[in-house]
User: Fold these one by one.
Assistant:
Number 1:
Amino acid sequence: MVSVKNVALIQNEPYTPGLSREYVAQKFGIALNEIAKLGSAENPLGPSPKAAAAVEKARAKIDLYPDWTSQALRAAIATKYGFDPECVVCGAGETEVISSIIRTYAQAGDPVLMYEPCFPIYHMFAENEGRVPVYVPMGADFSFVIDKYIAKLKEAGPKIAFLTNPHSPTGRFMEERDIRAICEATGKETLIVLDEAYIHFTQTQGSMHLLREFSNLIALRTFSKAFGLAGLRLGFGIAANKDLITPLLNIKPTWNLGHMQVEGGIAAIADDEHVNKTVDMIVEMRAYVTKQMFGLNRVRMVPGSRSNFFLIELTDPRLDSTAAFEELLKRGVIVKDGSVSFRGLGKRYLRCDVSQKVHMDRLVRALKEIDANGAG
Ligand SMILES: Cc1ncc(COP(=O)(O)O)c(C=O)c1O
């Protein structure tokens, strides 16, 4: 029998995903269409229709092995951003690319740098096989303290340094001069990973052009957010320095993407109309919910999100994120309990998506009730 002693991989904690509508509907007896799903930062407008049609068409090929490097998708991504296909690696979501990067570029005992709090996959995958996450605490109201990040970078000499722009769970935007300052301060022995999963919602082009300046920089993007394809599982890494990408291709599971993912991705990346429509809606609703949340006494929105989610702070010490999370669930509102989902965030925060007006109204109604009655 296999015992714990036989497991070579160290896995301290499982990932805690946002809850599904079905789970909440069943547990609390709420109709599915009455539930605001605000815990997974998906696209409330659904997939790009062009991508959905391409996936449907690609079904005809599922008896055949796909190309093992997803060459056609890599070429489409490379053309879109002005690089060679050899500069791109695709994965089953960014999550798979992050896994390949950590396994390729850091060994047991090696430090891996990141802000705290951050996307938990960075430290979870780092800890697998015994790498050591090194955290940089954030400043007041979750500002990036760049000097501290650079000091830690120099002190720890990490094999990999993660940056997320806009950041999760805060949604804060890192100015390009700060990304550049970090890249300039980084020695060649450190790989910098710039995760731009949510970059569309900042209404900027992001910082992929820095790839041409820094040969130890990889940028990551996902199809799960603005493209609306979280269920298809598709993401990519891109670097101007092809030598960073080749080992990632070799280490990834060989046929990691099927025909439907590849064809869906090619159609999605060409569908600017769907992305623009999504971004316009999110930006409008981000402003709307910000206004609607003014005037609450025991709860506030942490300001400054440029993403499709924001942090809610429970300012009354008698409130607690797990109790508030449960109170929201009972009212058909799914968010993320910061104390469960983000290491180091503590018991005072919820992460909540920006979504359509009906869902924002449902959220604000529920928050007003908690504000008036308390939960904790
Ligand atoms: C910051 C960040 N990066 C990457 C991802 C991974 O996205 P996916 O694996 O769906 O591409 C997420 C998912 O929520 C995220 O929040």
Number 2:
Amino acid sequence: MGAIRGACAPKGQGRPSSRPSMIQSCRPSSPALAAVLLAVLLGGPALASEIVGGRPARPHAWPFMASLQRRGRHFCGATLIARNFVLSAAHCVNGLHSRSVRVVLGAHNLRRREQTRQTFRVQQVFENGFNPLRLKNDIAILQLSGTATINTNVQVARLPAQDQGVGEGVQCVAMGWGQLGTNRPPSPVLQQLNVTVVTALCRPTNVCTLVPGQHAGICFGDSGGPLICNGLVHGIDSFIRGGCGSGTFPDSFASVAKFADWINSIIRRYGDDDGPSLHPRDTAGRTY
Ligand SMILES: *[C@@H]1O[C@H](CO)[C@@H](O)[C@H](O)[C@H]1NC(C)=O
């Protein structure tokens, strides 16, 4: 069982429900949440290849992708946004002792010992009005204890400009080490999945995605990871409804564009000593 303090098994799994499930730590006392949690349990049988319905990423194809771990176990995703900061979901770190969290960069297969990894402790956690009942503002910035070395396996992601959102129909990629299905084990190898931005059944404060015509999507353990659209981190995996890959309810992400100015202000203020280490920002809205 996952070693996350305060975490509980996802309740209501397999039961169709429109209630949101955060995809990491669960709050059993919260009436608004029928199911929550994404603590990933390593050690299950290695089944095929999905987030749900996805495929294994080419190793280090997404060099900004980070794994948040406690006692060597993955529990959430995160994204390197500056050499000493990762972005994740607030519900991933809410209530956790940040001292127990490790940020692992440069990973691909979590079951292997990989020379490409760089591991850091968390020095400080910044949140911005996270509401665990309404699942609003589900965003956190983790300041690392050190500065990542940038190389082919570890790189800083690009963020959108403030309010530079994504519209209906945009193609994006979701990724993570989360479970391969509501009742399936997590994936040791990073998975990726093509998804499409939708606005139906989505709050204006979230970015939402579906895989049209398929039971595919994010699942427990994917929380905190990035949604990449047009080469930019537009979303942070936040919650699901109706189980993983329901085919009906879109997956919900915190909208990074709504927090771009806040993110930049934190990085500017607490960046490493080599001067401001702002993430490379795509001012031209370039697509690649
Ligand atoms: C995902 O999208 C990319 C770019 O749009 C495309 O090249 C690729 O074939 C898609 N992969 C799958 C499995 O659909």
